[in-house]
Write a structure and sequence with these properties.
Radius of gyration: 19 Å
Distance between the termini: 21 Å
Shape: globular
Number of strands: 0
Helix content: 40-55%
Bound molecules: iron/sulfur cluster
Largest sheet: none
CATH class of the largest domain: Mainly Alpha
CATH architecture of the largest domain: Orthogonal Bundle
Order of helices and strands: HHHHHHHHHHHH
Amino acid sequence: MGVCLCEFESRSGHQKFEFSRAQRTGPLDGPCPDVWGHDDAAMTTIKDRLADAYRILLAAFGPQDWWPALSRFEVMVGAVLTQNTSWTNAERAIENLREEGALEPAGLAALSVGRLEELVRPAGFYRRKAKTLTDLLATIARSGGGLDGLLDLAQDDLRRALLRTTGIGPETADAIVLYAGGYPTFVVDAYTRRFAARHGLASERASYDEIQSLFENALPRRTDLLNEYHALLVCLGKRFCRPLPLCEECPLRSDLPASV
Ligand code: SF4
């Protein structure tokens, strides 16, 4: 089925912070262009499948209202703390930081290393994550314009600056670029990899960049859509596409290749 996502609307009722630059909302604010294109048959098929999957997941799960944070700095902290652990554990660490007044750069910088490690301990790997948060403060300082100075960098420059930070890899950097920077990028995580491999969209051995390119070439470059798509795939991975998949009950079972 050839479909268009141009009428997509973010139905989040809980906008927590606003982005400062209108261009970050991507190319679909104006009249509907042919965002799917018709470059070759294989890509057209992938675009159609990913568009259908998006609609099915949105209908099944509803808007996910991501990222669950009250500020852009909190998004950045959360993206670090949720590495290699559940969001529940990350949230406990975030609440510790909130109670300490450390969910803004100056408050975080005022903490001793020991105290910071203690506060983020519920998120696991607490020494490494405390170091990453400290280095993130240094990345912010290097921007010369504080948090806004960093997040207002051009998309590629922001990603590069984040990747130079100890403990921040492509997934965390892209989560920050998308959810704190408001730029249209696709975040690849373990749930995305699992879905893509099981549905024959990408090899199990595909690199981060290859999977990201697959989705970014197939989807409209629109921040709110890429925001929602990633969140919906996380929901899919938690509820159905688990290590032992629940395909019989899954809303995406109609997209499974016949060979699976
Ligand atoms: S149909 Fe099965 S493999 Fe596909 S997303 Fe659902 S649970 Fe995963």
